[in-house]
């Protein structure tokens, strides 16, 4: 289920429970309270006009009970004990209030009535004064805003089952229900589970063999260590972070969806950071404020400084249409800022801060002022009044030394271009004079002058004159090649004339010579012409000496006909002269020379970053109702008030750090949320790691730790994990190992009827859930089992294109100006790269990934969904991708075990499922392959494959389409 839809359903259930609780309270004579029952209703429907941000329509403030009793211009809003006399009830029943949006539901009106009739009770004395951003004590006390506690590890009845402290927390709750952990998963299941969790790839037979043959007690732990050290670990876990960061290789926002150049450097930074086990606090600080950690101007950067700068690409992942000339530019600019705040708050804080853009958050204690204070942290870099488009924000990483070399080579290239320009001018003049020969002599000077006069300065007479001679009128540097065609034709004609004339003259002399030879000797003469000089008879030699014209040819024509030979040479010279007059060949050589010079230039590359303009700090204003055209009061940067209120030592974010050339706001905020005391940072991250290992988070709504989010199933465990994570240096790989070597993680996924009755949703973690592979892992696994997977790390994204049937596939687009498909460009082995390197286009998602719920970056992916729909099966059966890779899979089996179907099946099973098949499974598989062969005997395979090869490929496709391949238990 979509997470947002789930939260709406949760809200509906919550309302129903509120009604039920109210009815129960009424039955038991337990009074309702303003804090627990009423305030949340008013916050949703009323406070945005009656209390928030100083808004008091009709001078009525509904934030406290005593304000309601005091009332406004219309008198008291409530009369305790008398709902029928309360103006508030009258107005909401008549649906006069709220005046806009949805009216208050009957169930909530009933709660208000009961509360008033019971005397309008409060749980505690109300404060004498409250500010515009008043946060009620109950909101301050909400669990996620409280400091992280170092919860004690519970004592359990079965201590032998506790491998890691997390086991004790889970087991304690299981034992309360008289339950325990399930039995341990098999060694092969653990291996496949660990491979997919840590590197997102299936184990190869040799890797699996190494683990299965290791009988030492720590064999599994050593496997975990090997996987954590794998270069593929960063690709797998980097992809998880790229989801919440909203990574994409296109700008999105509108239909233009322009290519997002250089974004891949941020993707590579993330992968590298996970591989290097960069501490999470450092990881966050670099992404939020890497540019503020180094001094501008950003030139001649060390690798360490460049990495910090690249990290700020995190704040450039929001859709950004400002470079595509959108219709409403100001709206587009503000949307970038809004989406960036949404990405940061949801991914790092696990809060829906964006809901407070137009009014106070209806459910969480986030005043609208807080939203703009939070925005003020980022506005010095995202200054919407002095906006910088994507192209103007990029930074060159070329060093001064390389730039010097590049400039020198460019100067050399420009020198050649200068020579080319001079030649072009000569060629134009020469061509003009040639074309003027076709103009009457009395008009040549006038026509030449008209051509030489620039367009704006030509008289009407000159314009009219040039229209009569279009070949002269269109003469330009860009059209010289058109005149080359004429020269080519003329040159060809002259060359043909020379050839024909020479042939005619040779034939004439030859014929005349033969006519003078006596008839009796003509046969000897003809034979002499065809015989080589050394083989001629004395008689033939004598005849040739008497009639030398017998040996006439094109090459010796001058000897027999000097005048004719001169005429032939004239045509040859003319052909050569005309050829030499052609400009394009000469210009192309100069173009090639320029290209070769420029090829030597160091390539200038860029990074997509977020930076501030030194010395420029814009003011941030509160937008009335979220409308940037209605700015009100100025606000200074700050974190969330509710968090600040709960800290022992609140940290202020200075408006300007005078020690930096930048404002220092983001750096101060990054340090604040990673100081180990912030209640959300560590909780949110360890919860997300838990989610990816156990299928769901301890908080099942990973980007909403607020009141609309799903409460934690094990709050003490979440706090213990967060505290332990921070205390041990924010090390992510250490966290992985602790979780994966726990009894809870190593459980079987086998369901139990008893467990299903007591804990049907497995909220107590009494077994491991069966999980479907994610979109990328499915594609990568298919390629991996074929042996084709290209394992290079990093680099530019692999292109995608639309195929003949409109599906998006890996490939190089080749279309004409009308968008029609041209001849396909053959793709190299980049098509076998891991999915994390495939272009992430917001408007053109790769079909095989999109079908299996690849995330939509709008603006980021808060939590992946996992659907099961019929088109997924159709794709596995019919897509070109699956057919192609099933063939590769079969070829791998045949290459390894030629002609041995039993061994082919065993290898296929190991590759696809990570385990050895049973004898019965081998038997059934071989029978299936054999049964398929006749299906192809009568079909002439266009692929050139034999029926046996096609049958094996069909079997391979069946394995790749099976649930055992697509799911991990």
How are the SSEs placed, and which strands pair?
Blueprint: H1 3-27, H2 34-45, H3 65-70, H4 87-93, H5 106-117, H6 137-140, H7 165-176, H8 187-198, H9 205-212, H10 219-229, H11 231-245, H12 264-275, H13 280-289, H14 303-311, H15 329-349, H16 368-378, H17 390-393, E1 395-396, H18 400-436, H19 441-452, H20 460-467, H21 470-473, H22 480-515, H23 522-530, H24 538-546, H25 557-560, H26 562-581, H27 584-599, E2 606-607, E3 620-623, E4 631-635, H28 641-646, H29 665-673, H30 681-694, H31 715-727, H32 732-740, H33 753-758, E5 771-772, H34 775-786, E6 800-802, E7 808-810, H35 847-851, H36 870-878, H37 880-896, H38 901-913, H39 919-937, H40 947-960, H41 963-966, E8 967-968
Antiparallel strand pairs: 1-2, 3-4, 5-8, 6-7
Helix pairs in contact: 1-5, 2-5, 8-10, 11-12, 13-14, 13-29, 18-27, 19-20, 22-26, 23-24, 30-31, 30-32, 34-37, 36-37, 37-38, 37-40, 38-39, 39-40
């Amino acid at each position: 289920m979509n997470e947002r839809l789930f939260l709406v359903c949760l809200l509906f259930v919550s309302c129903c429970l509120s009604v039920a609780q109210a009815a129960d309270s009424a039955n038991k004579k337990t009074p309702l309270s303003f804090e627990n029952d009423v305030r949340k209703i008013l916050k949703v429907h009323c406070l945005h006009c009656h209390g928030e941000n100083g808004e008091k329509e009709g001078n009525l403030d509904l934030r406290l009970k005593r304000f309601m009793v005091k009332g406004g211009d219309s008198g008291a809003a409530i009369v305790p004990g008398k709902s029928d006399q309360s103006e508030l009830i009258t107005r909401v029943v008549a649906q006069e209030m709220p005046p806009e949006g949805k009216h208050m539901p009957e169930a909530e009106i009933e709660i208000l009535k009961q509360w008033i009739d019971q005397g309008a009770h409060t749980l505690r004395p109300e404060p004498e004064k409250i500010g515009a951003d008043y946060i009620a004590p109950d909101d301050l006390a909400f669990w996620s805003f409280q400091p992280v506690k170092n919860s004690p590890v519970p004592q359990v009845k079965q201590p032998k089952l506790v491998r890691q402290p997390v086991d004790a927390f889970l087991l304690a709750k299981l034992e309360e229900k008289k339950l325990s952990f399930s039995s341990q998963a098999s060694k092969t299941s653990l291996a496949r589970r660990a491979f997919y969790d840590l590197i997102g790839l299936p184990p190869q037979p040799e890797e699996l063999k190494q683990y299965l043959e290791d009988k030492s007690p720590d064999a599994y732990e050593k496997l975990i260590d090997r996987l954590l050290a794998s270069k593929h670990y960063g690709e797998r876990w980097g992809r998880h972070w790229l989801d919440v960061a909203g990574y994409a290789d296109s700008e999105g926002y509108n239909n233009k969806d322009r290519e997002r150049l250089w974004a891949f450097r941020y993707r590579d930074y993330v992968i590298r950071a996970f591989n290097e086990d960069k501490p999470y606090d450092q990881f966050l600080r670099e992404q939020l404020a890497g540019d503020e950690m180094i001094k501008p101007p950003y030139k001649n950067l060390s690798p360490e400084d460049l990495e910090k700068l690249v990290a700020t690409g995190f704040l450039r992942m929001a859709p950004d249409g400002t470079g595509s000339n959108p219709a409403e530019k100001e709206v587009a600019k503000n949307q970038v800022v809004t989406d960036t705040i949404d990405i940061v708050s949801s991914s790092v804080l696990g809060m829906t801060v964006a809901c407070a853009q137009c009014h106070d958050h209806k459910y969480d204690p986030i005043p609208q002022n807080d939203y703009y204070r939070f925005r003020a942290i980022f506005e010095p870099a995202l200054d919407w009044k002095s906006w910088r488009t994507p192209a103007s924000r990029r930074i060159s990483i070329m060093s001064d030394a390389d730039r010097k070399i590049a400039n020198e080579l460019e100067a050399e290239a420009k020198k050649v271009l200068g020579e080319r320009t001079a030649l072009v001018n000569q060629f134009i003049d020469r061509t003009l004079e040639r074309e003027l020969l076709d103009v009457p002599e009395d008009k040549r000077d006038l026509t030449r002058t008209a051509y030489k006069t620039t367009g704006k300065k030509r008289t009407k007479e000159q314009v009219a004159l040039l229209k009569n001679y279009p070949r002269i009128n269109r003469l330009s540097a860009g059209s010289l090649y058109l005149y080359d065609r004429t020269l080519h034709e003329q040159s060809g004609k002259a060359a043909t004339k020379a050839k024909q004339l020479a042939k005619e003259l040779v034939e004439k002399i030859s014929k005349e010579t033969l006519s003078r030879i006596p008839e009796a000797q003509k046969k000897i003469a003809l034979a002499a012409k065809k015989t080589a000089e050394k083989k001629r008879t004395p008689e033939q030699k004598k005849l040739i000496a008497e009639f030398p014209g017998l040996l006439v040819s094109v090459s010796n024509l001058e000897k027999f006909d000097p005048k004719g030979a001169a005429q032939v040479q004239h045509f040859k010279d003319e052909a050569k002269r005309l050829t030499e007059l052609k400009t394009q060949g000469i210009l192309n050589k100069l173009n090639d020379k320029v290209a070769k010079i420029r090829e030597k230039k160091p390539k200038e590359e860029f990074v997509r970053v977020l930076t501030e303009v030194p010395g420029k700090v814009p003011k941030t204003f509160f937008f009335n109702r979220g409308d940037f055209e209605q700015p009100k009061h100025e606000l200074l940067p700050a974190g969330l008030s509710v968090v600040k209120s709960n800290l022992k030592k609140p940290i202020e974010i200075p408006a300007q750090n005078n020690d930096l050339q930048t404002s220092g706001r983001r750096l101060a905020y990054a340090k604040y949320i990673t100081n180990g005391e912030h209640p959300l940072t560590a909780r949110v991250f360890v919860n997300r790691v838990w989610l990816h290992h156990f299928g769901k988070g301890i908080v099942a709504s990973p980007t909403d730790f607020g009141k609309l989010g799903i409460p934690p199933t094990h709050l003490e465990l979440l706090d213990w994990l967060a505290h332990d994570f921070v205390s041990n240096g924010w090390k992510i790989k250490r966290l992985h190992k602790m979780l994966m070597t726990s009894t809870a993680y190593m459980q079987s996924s086998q369901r139990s009827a008893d467990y299903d009755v007591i804990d049907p949703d497995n909220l107590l973690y009494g077994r491991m859930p069966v999980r479907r592979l994610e979109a990328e892992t499915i594609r990568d696994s298919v390629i991996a089992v074929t042996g084709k997977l290209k394992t290079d790390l990093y680099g530019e994204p692999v292109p995608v294109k639309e195929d003949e049937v409109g599906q998006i596939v890996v490939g190089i687009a080749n279309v004409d100006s009308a968008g029609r498909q041209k001849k396909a460009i053959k793709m190299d082995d980049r098509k076998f790269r891991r999915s994390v390197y495939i272009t992430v286009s917001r408007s053109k998602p790769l079909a095989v990934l999109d079908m299996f719920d690849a995330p939509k970056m709008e603006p980021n992916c808060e939590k992946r969904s996992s659907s099961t729909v019929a088109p997924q099966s159709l794709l596995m059966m019919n897509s070109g991708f699956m057919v192609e890779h099933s063939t590769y899979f079969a070829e791998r089996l045949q290459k390894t075990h030629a002609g041995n179907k039993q061994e082919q099946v065993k290898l296929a099973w190991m590759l696809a499922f990570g385990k050895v098949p049973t004898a019965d499974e081998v038997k059934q598989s071989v029978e299936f392959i054999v049964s398929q062969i006749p299906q192809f005997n009568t079909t002439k395979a266009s692929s050139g494959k034999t029926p046996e090869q096609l049958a094996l490929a069909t079997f391979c496709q069946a394995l790749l389409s099976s649930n055992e391949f697509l799911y991990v238990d």
